[in-house]
Specification:
This protein is of the alpha+beta class. It is built from 2 helices and 9 strands; from the N terminus they run ααβββββββββ. It has helices at about 1-30, 35-45; strands at about 60, 65, 70-75, 85-90, 100, 105-110, 115-125, 140-150, 155-165. The strands form 2 sheets. Strands 3, 4, 5, 7, 8 and 9 form a 6-stranded mixed sheet that branches. It is elongated, with a radius of gyration of 29 Å. The mean pLDDT is about 85.
């Protein structure tokens, strides 16, 4: 009698399992068709920044605009077909004209539109990293800064440079 009970339990378990798979299959058939890949691409690109190159951030020190120079970047222009237009430009660290600023002044920045990452770093003339990159150092000298920006949805990334001189 035990063998017949075990056989009934096995048959019942197989029937329950088969019904479960059939129910999942039936529910899956009623779902809408998968989205066209080009529609997904159009949705992503509609949220990209409308520019041919990465937009530059703005930098000010005590109301004085500081020129920011774009270095190397990777950038994809918004497109609405299956052929994308992306470009990568390599560049060495650019020399920029130092802007004279007072010691201890705050460095105000404004990130470009659509940014997901914005990092400001600075170095002194000896190449040492600045502890507080958003404040002009107290010591006289020339200080080089780098801003790294990345945009959402893999549109691109870029580095920007500027130089400050404390007198």
């Amino acid at each position: 009698m035990e063998k017949s009970n075990q056989l009934m339990i096995i048959v019942a378990a197989i029937a329950i399992l088969a019904c479960t798979f059939w129910a999942g299959y039936a529910i899956g058939l009623k779902q809408r068709a998968p989205m066209d890949p080009s529609a997904v691409q159009r949705a992503i690109h509609s949220r990209w920044v409308q520019a041919d190159t990465p937009p530059s951030p703005a930098v000010n020190v005590q109301g004085k605009a500081v020129e920011v120079v774009r270095g190397g970047y990777s950038w994809c222009k918004p497109v609405y077909n299956s052929k994308g237009t992306c470009v990568s430009v390599d560049s060495s660290i650019l020399e920029t004209e130092p802007v004279e600023v007072p010691a201890g002044a705050p460095i105000d920045t404004e990130a470009p539109k659509g940014i997901k990452e914005f990092t400001l770093t600075g170095v002194d003339s000896a190449g040492g990293a600045l502890e507080h990159p958003y404040t002009v150092p107290q010591e006289k000298g020339i200080y080089k800064y780098r801003i790294h920006c990345e945009w959402f949805l893999d549109q691109g990334q870029s580095d920007f440079y500027f130089t400050l001189k404390v007198t």
